[in-house]
Structure of Branched-chain amino acid ABC transporter permease:
Amino acid sequence: MKILGLSAKDTRFLLIVIFLTLATPILLQPFPEGSGLATFNAGYPDLMQRFAIFGIFAIGFNILFGLTGYLSFGHAAFLGVGSYTVVWMYKLLDYNVVWGLPLAVITSGIFALLIGFVSLRRSGIYFSILTLAFAQMSYNLAYSVLTPITNGETGLQVYSSDSQVLLGASEPTTPHFFGIVMRDNFWQPNFGGWQFTFNNGYYFTAIIAIIVFYISLRIFRSPFGLMLRAIKTNQTRLNYTGINTRPYTLAAFVISGMYAGLAGGLMAAMDPLAGAERMQWTASGEVVLMVILGGAGTLMGPILGAGFIKYFENIFSKINDQILQGWFSWMPDWLSGLLIEISHFFVGKSWHLTLGLLFMLVVIFLPGGLVEAGQRIARLFKKKPPENGGKGSDHHPQPAPHVAE
């Protein structure tokens, strides 16, 4: 079966992604409420939306870094531009996200075009430093210089004195999509000890994430995507053949920036507030970690990396002494006290240490990221072929597969 111009294999892959995305509220609640392991549940709206939003951010960054090899440390600037754009639409028109999100994509795309036009005159580490410089300039402009537009360190938010010319008398006063309020839950079923939350905002974000994932899939399979891979493999050789690679890299940079702007706009749809901290270099570094951890240049890698990091940030950081005491209460006091003291170094405020150690292990033993780990596990369960490769294989070798396969 083929849909939307995809091959049968890619269609199956897309359907699996759609299923996993829509079933996330169930899949992320594996433990019953009230159990000791319920701490590891992640099926609540705020965290699920962050999974989807940063998945979009990472997918876009992967189009640039994963396909072309250009490492940008300035993509947080586009994230911030998208957030500011959506909040300004709230202030000027109303809380309907439909006005702000398309404009956030366009605005961040124009901003990425300007930055990319200058930065892509250089490559390698020089390109990375240029993007970092632009991002830091953007952050400082938003934080102190452009305070009439960004509201500086306080952050841009909506006030009752704002014009909001389209705001109706009965219209919600929080972000919504034609009356569907983002923060509201439309279903909260209970099955035994399990409680599931189905949230409007998550499914709105999830549908957008599926759409942009499909677009990235088409880019990966297109001649344009093949040219980006060629640029990553040997850009100098392409230049010697007379091919001007700069339009391709600039297009990839702009598309990547538009993805980041969309993610920033969705963050404002989740919380109607935009601050300069979203433009800091640490946010750019975070998306780099997401892509590398998941698997740069792969389709699922950025999504896995984004989910992995956001899970650690939100779940492991909230494990405190009370939770640890509940886990180790069945042990002798001296042993439980020792384990709690040791655990302090890996959870709570020290969750970065655990994430750093896991990142080191992945980089050392799984250069292909979490996707490579999944591939290795899958190979363990695959049926091994006969040692001689089949009847007559010694005298009749099989033809080698095409490189594009």
